[in-house]
Amino acid sequence: MREGNLVNLILGIILACCTLNTYWVNAEDPYRYFTFQVTYGTRAPLGVQQKVILVNGQFPAPRIECETNDNIIVNVINKLDEPFLFTWSGIKQRRTSWQDGVLGTNCPIPPNSNWTYKFQVKDQIGTFTYFPSINFQRAAGGFGAFVVQPRSVITTPYPIPNGELDLLIGDWYNTDHKTLRKRLESGIQLPLPNGLLINGKSSTTLVLKKGLTYKLRISNVGIATSINFRIQGHLMTLVEVEGAHTMQETYESLDIHPGQSAAVLVSLKNLASKSYYFVASTRFTKPILNAIGILKYEGSTTPPSKPLPIGPTYHLHWSMKQARTIRLNLTANAARPNPQGSFHYGNITVVRRLIIENSLTKIKGALRCAVNNVSYVDPPTPLKLADWFKIPGVFDINTFTDTPTSRPAMLGVSVVNITLHDFVEIVFQNKESTVQSWHFDGTSFYVVGYGSGVWTYNMRKRYNLVDGISRHTVQVYPKSWTAILVSLDNKGMWNLRSTVWWRNYLGQQLYFKVWNDEKSLYTEADIPLNAIKCGKASKY
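The line above is the sequence of L-ascorbate oxidase homolog; the predicted structure tokens follow.
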């Protein structure tokens, strides 16, 4: 090859590389930056002055709003007197379990220091939340809405509403989180919460315009109780649950269990222009706790009139029946152009089945919650760091069994070893007399069955293998079971936990190590340069 031609070829390659590199830079998904200063403050959510956790001086915490595939950068400044972590409930953290914000993946942020989370909301849309994950701080506040809007090129399976509002609803104690924590550690169960809050208040007023349709994003941010939500004279059309578009069923009231979120459309077109009550009430409790708000039509001076809209109280069968009506919209797009129903989960072979049974027990005289008779205890070294640096003695994959055993309950570090892309069936068996609620980090799963009594293999004939809803948090009714199917296609260390937070604190959780022996940035990001190292990982 002549010298001139060789030079031209080299210049052409360089130009092509520069052009390609410029394309990559320009094509990178947008970044959204947040700075959250976490402090204590005094508030009286139920009329009693108490210490709460504020984020940028706000209670509840600020809303995070972004769009599918955005990169999220959150600098968290911890001004508390104890370590702190945020977890991003429902954000799948694809390739980045380093950013999940639980003690199995992260060392906590020490007092008077900061740490920056960096993650992408890859291929997600929907209604989510974030909150403190350690030291029982969730009982003190710090929770906020996390909303992922769809890209403009993706069609939405309903008319775009005229506006949307967040409703963060949950139970609340008048006692500070440290006192509640000490009570649990002394072996005393927590009583029924003192009341319910709507957006951090015992009551609130929404002023909306007649003739318009609104999307309400409702999340149960409580730590103990299921809630029912309803609006006087108005029907609600369910359109989305935790990132999945649903069949658009209409409800007079809707059950939402701890850790769950849902989006509904409410039309203000066909009723008189006045004010109406809306009510959130606890389910399956005695007494029933209520929070009452007012939906006011803009410009109206007519106050709401009683009676309040009636909701279900203990009716378990009613709730289970409603849960079965929440189904996946198979033809709708979610975050990507392909229909949600294009993943035929019912045709995939299950390679492993786990039966997860919760229990309330005593271990060495202390009150504990266990899963298959193992009560989880966080080791000083996060599991993810131990696994990454191959540090021995932190966890043993043989501690946990796939099915309940008759062995005595014990303290331990429960880790389930799963090969990347395995398709797994999990049956949650609840032999207790209270509702359970389970959340799975790093993924979403298909809810395929609810039933009373003890699960048997024959129950699989009743599974919904066509349009079971995809979500990240599911309820299990008293003395009942719930079955899910999940494709574990996200490499990392993922927390499966109770969202009834006192049970979580007392050990009702475990982790899934999803892995393969191939190290690739396509399946998992390297450890962040700013990772905090603690325990046995401090020297690495």
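Note on the example: The chain has three domains: 31-149, 163-325, 345-515. Residues 1 and 13 are 16 Å apart (CA to CA).
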